[in-house]
Amino acid sequence: MRKVSLVTALVLVTAMAGSAMAAPTVEIVKVKDKSLTASFSSAMDGSCGSGTAISSVDVHWDSSLIKSDGVTTMQSALLVAIQYINLCTGDNLNMSGFVTDVNGLVATDLASGHIGATVPVTTEPDPDTGEFKSGSVTVNLNFAATGSASTIRDRSHSRDGGVITISNFMVSARPAIATGSVSAVLPLAAGPTVVPMVNGPSLSAQIGKDANGSITIIRHHQ
Known about the structure:
The chain is mainly beta. Helix content is 5%, strand content 68%.
């Protein structure tokens, strides 16, 4: 599964807040303060054998986003993206979602952090019917730094469907490991089911602060 990036998170947050228009719209989001990111990949036992249920989880939390669209607002945001494949039942789901105003904790020296929240998630709408499936993901993760801090510069340009993003920001960050629990209520073929999504520490994680910069989002509406 494609790793969740700050750009992706901001695209989702701003796209959900906007209204449909015929002409392209341009939005600028300023990035500030603290962040926590983590990626997991797990193989678990399914009904037909060991390791037959596979999951991936990406988590990204930002403490402060400032959206400038005539009215400036500031809020935190938590984005979660998951993939779940069960080789026994044939279930194969890619889902993502976000919530705002999520309280996370980051130590001043970036040595540790914590996030906990329940996030509603959905699949992408069916291109023919517009229908989508929905569920929820509950995150409770602790972060511990594993290395020293460094300054990261992100300058990128990407296109995803009808959305173009141009990012230009800097962040001071420490590599980390994330542990804890991530569980989901998923719309499986058998019906809504509680599924554990991780069974070990993160593959990668990061604790950041002093993010500063902006992301320009250009949306082409149909």
